[in-house]
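Final report, section 2: Outcomes. Of the targets proposed, DNA 3'-5' helicase is the one most frequently requested by collaborating groups, and we therefore present its record in full.
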Amino acid sequence: AETSERHWLEELNDEQRAAATHTGGPLLILAGAGTGKTTTLCARVAWLVAEGVPSERILLLTFTRRASREMLQRARGLVPASSRVLGGTFHSVAHRLVRRHAAALGLPGGFGVLDAGDAADVLDLLREEAGHAKARTRFPKKGTLLDIYSRTVNAQQPLSGVIAEHFPWVEDHREAISALFREYTARKKSLGVIDLDDLLLMWRALARDEVIGPRLASSFDHVLIDEYQDVNGLQVDLAQALGGFGCDVTAVGDDFQAIYGFRSASAGHILDFPEHFPGTRVVTLERNYRSTQPVLDAANELAAQATRAFPKRLRADRPGGVRPRVVHIRDEAAQAEEVANRVLEARENGSDLRDQAVLARTSHDSDALELELLRRKIPYVKYGGLKYLEAAHVKDFVALLRLADNGGDDIAWFRVLQLVEGLGPASARKAMAVMAGDDARGAGEPSEAADAGGAATRRGLSASARDEAGEGRLAAVPDRLAAWPAAREVIPSATRASADALIAALAVARDEQRAGPRAEGLREVLAPLVKARYPDGGVRVQDLDQLVAAAHQANDPRHFVAELVLDPPQSSADLAQPPHLDEDYLTLSTIHSAKGLEWDHVHVLAVYDGNFPADMAAGTSEQIDEERRLLYVGMTRARRTLSMYVPVRYHHRPRGFDDAHGYGKPSRFLTPEVLACCDVTRLPDDPLNPRGAPIVTARRLTVSPDSLFD
Ligand code: ATP
Ligand code: MG
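The predicted structure is given below as tokens.
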């Protein structure tokens, strides 16, 4: 292509352009927030395509589906042929590969993917079966078990080390936990399901296989990874496996924005990149194009508190700007009112709602604000926190979709049976035992083997699923549907009629779904149940409609279901195109979900000690460092104005304890140095709180009686 067609390269600064057009060998862009790392990565994708690299030989890995969608849109805007670049999260790319090689991995064609909630449920079941639930010993609960399991797999550390380092209080149960984890992997195999961690493990197994590995790696010339500071050990292995076969790896990130340590990511990986990829060219970017200097001054002071940071100070390219505000305020209701006022004021002054965001540590921090926004009819979309997919009715729908693919997915069956009114977990479990041939573990009399790798369905497979899986051959999971006539006999008679109706409807919808995967039939099955079950059933049915619409938009419906699980949409607006694309709405987001994004006006809620850092995370100095980085990520999202609120009286929700009200001190991260870069205000005073919060006066006041002497 002609250079004249590459005018967009001219919009980059020299360092960015050098990175975008780098040739030969691994490349790392290690630079601060807002310096154009993601911009440069998009330009690099476009440049590679313009240089003649076939777009399907370029792989772009991001942390969310939304990020890859947006980045590819930008690249396409520069060079239209970028549209065929393969983009996605590590998990979604893994899913494509695992599906293609399902047979080699011993998986049935319609294997299901467990989300974190499902995985925890399976662990819970095994815990119960092993008698740990009854025992008086304090055996860890399912959430802790999943944390331990996931950390072990993702950090690729031996279980004993993980327990000693992160979960010392379960040390006494180490052997039992180890046995339970083995049982967990066996059970997944017999059910024909895998979990999120398996996807990465399986990708790695494929990448390391002497036959498949080189073929996989040679299918890409370039792998580009954004937000590399948040990769875990397994993901580093994958990048290295790809890089080992002549595929060039480009990584970008900022060690000071690493906020996924709790998921076994480590900022150390980005610093070790040059070691992992010999011959790496390291590019640093200095200038920040996002924010104005007063915002960066405060952020720089925050960063300077870190003990072991890679030193960098952000310098603004934009002129002017106003100092960030630190607002001490009575309580969460007053905070909500103040934020709403400011948002409307900014809108009066010409900023659309979509240029404004309210960020918080957890999604609960905005409860009061949501009420206020509803009251004032300010439209908003919420990201992060309780994921859309975790909503019960959405999970129900996904369970139905999963059954359409894999009739042996007992996790989905368990959920679907309980859709019947009056049919509880105990009855569901009994029915399932019958459906599984009187063996809850999934072996038994199979009626139909799952479709293997797209081949014809085999019937009447004699060996049990379990034996097959154990032998490493194709795992065929029997469909449970055929055993329904026997199973219905064990559930309460009052529920039989509606259960029959559900099963019949499911069978019909399933055949339709198989003929041409469309979710309408399943929606018809679920909609009346949802309407009957939830007081706000009408609204929830609209969510189902959106799921159906999104399924239609997906060009690969089966992958669509997995995608839902792999990268749960953050809200119904994130699922498909937002319902009213032209409507203006405010963004409410957790800081984790705001990574990489930016808005003109940013409000950070609840910046009190106990939230930043969280009580739960205030243990080790590493945890506190991560908490500081979290606040840093929040602050550096602001383009023009930044406000941080310290509610003096707040609603405290420590995990595992009752809610309580507390009196807040400002976050310890708001040191005098940070506050010296901010305007500190106190709004409005609370006469009911005589204790108040100590106000740190940040302004350097010059008090002089000189004027009296005129
Ligand atoms: P983060 O660390 O938060 O992910 P980043 O380093 O990825 O930030 P970008 O999001 O790429 O930064 O860029 C921040 C802003 O700066 C964007 O609005 C982008 O359009 C703008 N920008 C980047 N490079 C330039 C440039 N050379 N000239 C003008 N604007 C730029
Ligand atoms: Mg970025």
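The longest strand covers residues 638-652.
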